[in-house]
What we know:
Helix content is 38%, strand content 20%. The protein is of the alpha/beta class and 222 residues long. The chain has a domain at 23-39 and 65-147 and 160-200: Ribonuclease H-like superfamily/Ribonuclease H (Nucleotidyltransferase, domain 5, 2-Layer Sandwich), CATH 3.30.420. A 5-stranded mixed sheet has the order 3-2-1-4-5, sandwiched between helices. Helix 5 crosses helix 6. The protein is globular. The model has no long low-confidence stretch (mean pLDDT 90).
Amino acid sequence: MWCIPKASAAYVAAMEEVLDVYETPYNAEEPVVCFDETSKQLIVETRTPQPVQPSHPARHDYEYQRNGTRNLFMFFEPLANFRHVEVTERRTQQDFAYSMRWLTDEAYPDVRVIHVVLDNLNTHTPAALYKTFAPAEARRILKCLHFHYTPKHGSWLNMAEIEFSVFSRLCLNQRMPDAESLRHQVHALELERNHKQATVNWQFTTEDARLKLKRLYPFLSD
């Protein structure tokens, strides 16, 4: 179930901005990239797991050893059927800044502007780039980016979250002992889904929102 607050003009304004971005026809010069992050607990088995057997799934002992966590950044361009997941040690403002530089300089170096749909977290700000890079470098990167923030409690609008749910089901639900194992598993699934041209078939529009989520609109709900 979606966690949606009571009617809020700020909420619907941010929601409709994101929905308008999703309705924009594909333009290679202005790609729409959804960005999200999650974490993964690394777990070392203390006893050898029992492999799959006829009529029995693989079994893991309830005891395990924690081995830290890793952060995962998801870059997902649904209209190009492309995703990339970067595994990092942390999720600080500096990590966000470096991820945005990767997006502009390596993933899309020749485009006019990148429309980035992302959650409104305190690390996801233009200021993060100025805290990480010299002013000229921060401005150079930001000139290539146009941020579109989902509203508070509106992460369901971010298609990168949907893509993460696929990774959680097919990969991240497994126990992984270290960062290298995590990177290997994530990279393999990334390559597979990119090769299959897998994407999210987003159908929800601004018109749908005004009809189905009428109670969120202060004017319409009066």
